[in-house]
Amino acid sequence: MNGSIDDGEFACFQALMQKVAGIHLPPSKKPLVSGRLTKRLRARGIDSFGDYYRHIVSGSDADELQTAIELLTTNETYFFREPQHFDFLAREILPGLRRGAGCRVWSAASSSGEEAYSIAMVLMDKLGASASWEVFGSDINTRVLDLARHATYVTARNEAGIPPDYRRRFCLRGTGGMAGKLRIGAAVRERVRFARLNLNDDLASAGDFDVIFLRNVMIYFDLDMKRRVVAALRRRLRPGGWLFIGHSETLHGVTDSLRAVRPTIYRKDTA
Questions:
Q1: What pLDDT, on the 0 to 100 scale, is given for residue 210?
Q2: In what order do the strands lie in the sheet with 181-184?
Q3: Residues with Cβ < 8 Å from 85, sequence gap 6 or more?
Q4: Is the confidence at residue 154, as pLDDT, over 90?
Q5: What does 217-232 look like in DSSP terms, one character per residue?
């Protein structure tokens, strides 16, 4: 096979990712596309990126299309990333929830689950096991969702981000054949539900939420996609609900329908 991708082939994958996932691939991502897809071409015995593109959009191989989408999405995450958000959730939001009303929090690009389980640890700590609460994690990538459901992580890479008290109370350290691994304890794990969901699709099936985390995702969207996704998420927020975005992101120029409380923290009006 030809190991390089030409401009026309790259433009096809640009258009595909924009259409399917709302993700903009700038020209600087051309080597990434080539590098991540080369093994798939070899595995399928396909000679060119153009032939591979035509294969996955033909409608005859939905599994391979999903594989390509997963290879071209980024899934960098870790426990308690941007810890100020979790502090704000614990100190400012949860104490103000109406007792007995239940609490639902959405990790809207949950990747392999670290964000969703970080949220769940905070809720377990502040609301307790007897309270009604749930964390919903979604992603377009089915492979990382399988990892999230398993809730088992390499200790060396993940342990440092989890507060020591939370590690002691909510995590299990592997022994024997599981040495070097960390697993989220059942009490927390059972409160987190994962499902595949494309932010480019109808989000009504997700339900309504008190808090939504959509962090470090909009940097991959163009302005139109940002506006559509934020408008769709706003509809999923209960009155008075909260939206967290990443510290490299802003809603300036995207929407004025959510009130900025702090940088990267927004709130929907109560009325």
A1: 97
A2: 152-154, 181-184, 171-173
A3: 213, 215, 244, 264, 265
A4: no
A5: -GGGS-HHHHHHHHHH
Ramachandran region of residue 45, left (φ > 0), alpha (ψ -120 to 50) or beta? Answer: left
Report whether 106 contacts 211 (CB < 8 A). yes
Q: What is the mean pLDDT of residues 177-187?
A: 88
**Residue-level pLDDT at 149:** 96
Residue with tokens 């980024």: 74
Indicate the pLDDT class of residue 173, thresholds 50, 70 and 90. confident
Q: Mean per-residue pLDDT for 121-131?
A: 95
Query: What is the residue type of 263?
Result: P
Closest alpha carbon to 33 in 20, 45, 50, 55: 50
In this prediction, what percent of the chain has a pLDDT beyond 70?
97
Q: Has residue 93 got a pLDDT over 90?
A: yes
Q: Does domain 83-151+189-267 have CATH number 3.40.50.720?
A: no
Which class would CATH give 7-71? mainly alpha
The tokens for 68 are: 């390509």
Q: Domain limits of the chain?
A: 7-71, 83-151+189-267
Burial (Cβ within 10 Å: 0-12, 13-18, ≥19) of residue 79: buried
Known catalytic residues are 36, 139
- 184, with CB counted inside 10 A (0-12, 13-18, 19+), is buried
What pLDDT does residue 2 have?
57
Q: Exposure pattern of 54-75 as b/e (b: 16+ CB <10 Å)?
A: ebbbeeeeeebbbbbbbbbbee
Residue 264, classified by CB atoms within 10 Å of its CB into exposed (0-12), middle (13-18) or buried (19+), is buried
